[in-house]
Amino acid sequence: MTTDFNATKAMFDLPDGVIYLDGNSLGPMPKAAAARVAQTVTAEWGQMLIRGWNQAGWMEMPSRIGNRIAKLIGAEEGSVVMGDTLSIKVYQALASALEMNKPRKVILSDNGNFPSDLYIADGLARTLGEGYELRTVAPEDVEAAITDELAVLMLTEVDYRTGRKHDMARLIEKAHAHGVLVVWDLAHSAGAIPVELARDGADFAVGCSYKYLNSGPGGPAFIYVAPRHQERARPALSGWLGHEAPFAFDLDYRPGNGVERMRVGTPPILQLAALDAALDVWEGVTLQEIRAAALALQDRFIAGVEAACPDLELATPREHANRGSQVSFRHAEGYAVMQALIAEGVIGDFRAPDILRFGFTPLYIGPDEVDRAVQILARIIETKAWDRPEFKARSRVT
Amino acid sequence: MTTDFNATKAMFDLPDGVIYLDGNSLGPMPKAAAARVAQTVTAEWGQMLIRGWNQAGWMEMPSRIGNRIAKLIGAEEGSVVMGDTLSIKVYQALASALEMNKPRKVILSDNGNFPSDLYIADGLARTLGEGYELRTVAPEDVEAAITDELAVLMLTEVDYRTGRKHDMARLIEKAHAHGVLVVWDLAHSAGAIPVELARDGADFAVGCSYKYLNSGPGGPAFIYVAPRHQERARPALSGWLGHEAPFAFDLDYRPGNGVERMRVGTPPILQLAALDAALDVWEGVTLQEIRAAALALQDRFIAGVEAACPDLELATPREHANRGSQVSFRHAEGYAVMQALIAEGVIGDFRAPDILRFGFTPLYIGPDEVDRAVQILARIIETKAWDRPEFKARSRVT
């Protein structure tokens, strides 16, 4: 183990008294991000004005930062580009894969997938019209449901509620044996667990940067297109910055080189600046080390909670190979329990109907924080501290 | 005239020695934007963490700020929402309009439209398949080409190269008489000229915030859906934040209320914070005053340049009613001329093949800046100061 997690922890600015177990929803602020964003606003936008597109390298940020993320997900140089939101990138990946796999028309996913992915797939199938169909099965039935009938298998590697993890290599292998292309959503994988897109032969992947990559609220998404597909993949959202020569302003669209064609409109420079600075945290850190340390934290949390809180039911698989970087417990009053926890400085989140989610990353969480979180949760459960009207009143976002 | 443009000018932080005539490409930094973004990063993201979605009102920003922009484009409360990029919003508006106007399948636009709009329309037509078609005519032929065959008329009100302006009310009236829905791109209109979407009966409109609205590089786009269409318009990009109940995480998509359904993924909070602060500039300013003062600045610039630089040919219509807020001149060596101007602190931009663009807004430009810009341009033309290798070498973005 070469990574000094005390050093990575010092790179974040966490509020006093907070144990932050919600990096799977919104990563905390790296100190460097604040300084970089301020510089981008005042020195670049403020002083360079329009010249920032050249002088500050704004135009290249989506590709340059894409290459930084590629290293964290086992992707080839030149295969990842940043932009838009995860939903938009799902649409692009799915539309490209469907077009490449004509005349097949069925998308398979699972009912543990993040609903937005399913909504996007459904909207695309509806737009494409006759015969196009989104089919969902239970996560454990995905493998058996892969047949020659499918055009695309679209899966989120790690379930946003339970933390259950699919076996990416195995599912890709079976899908390819049946001529099916696979689109992976890495929202809960990137920066959390080792991902080997190139080694495993992935076709397309998408993900967001504001969870384990700590880019801040609304940070841009990424899209991966395997090099072997790049010249065939045609983005359904054919925007000018995905054009071969954006500043020629030709009337006809010609897709850009490689993954650049997946760019659409003007990139969000302030958000990209935050992300770029946030990625400095990863210099010298390997995902293998992160994974080993995160599993130890999770195991410690599970053992502590199960010993102290028999009311809580583990929703996350026990086997290391089958889970991502979060631990989820079920509780009938989960919403109120989470509000009580947050009031005491232990920040996780709640997902309907009864899931308490806790994300773990050794970048800024250590065994001490885990032990304190367990103690506070145990006290809340034991004293029924959650049973108060202010904790039961639902707000829109949790 | 009640607006004190000295007061608005003091709200911007422009570099010394710069005359900024490129607000039609990227507006300059309002001082308040820098402070607001810093606060959003350090006090909100840094200290509130995930709680910022509730405590700092992040989740409501796309609608709340949409309502602020609605006031600048003559739109009804609850008819505008922010997000994504202009290209994505064009796709959503166009897809909705096409679906509402089945079985018609032809989109009409003009060949002066911003190419990205045409690329997006072409990509959508291609995705929809058989029979769908994008047709383009010259801008002056649009009115005559409106027939019962068309599904949608998609136009940018102000031409990004020449500054020519369409007659919105007149074209909407003819389109509606033929059962055609109209999608307006207000990229070069919002914050520059009076727009009356509600009064003129517009169906859909889209625009960007980083030009005359000064939101910074990559600021989010907006979309307008007329209230009468909101419950029928179905967003092709059906993302979770456009769902009726995003945090119910239902597996089936149900479009949200009103224009909220046009939201897609997680909104870019840092960019929205910059925009929100930038909009404070508009408190107490009317578009009618902006328009009158901008036309005076443009006329002054045109008269000065035409008197001093016979080599330059005006590309912008002379009639006030037919132009937006920019003035364009043609010059065979336009690229080099613009580089020479920028080197002297007069920042406009160049659009292939031969267009020099200059944007005018009285928010931070006065008659003195116009006169100095004319003098510098005149000297560059007279002395052929542009005829140097470093001004002729093309960079990617100008």
Automatic annotation (TrEMBL), chains A, B:
The modification N6-(pyridoxal phosphate)lysine is found at residue 211. Its EC number is 3.7.1.3. Pfam families: KYNU_C (PF22580). Its cofactor is pyridoxal 5'-phosphate. Keywords: Hydrolase, Pyridine nucleotide biosynthesis, Pyridoxal phosphate. It comes from the Bacteria. Homodimer. NCBIfam families: kynureninase. Catalyzes the cleavage of L-kynurenine (L-Kyn) and L-3-hydroxykynurenine (L-3OHKyn) into anthranilic acid (AA) and 3-hydroxyanthranilic acid (3-OHAA), respectively. This is Kynureninase. The gene is kynU.
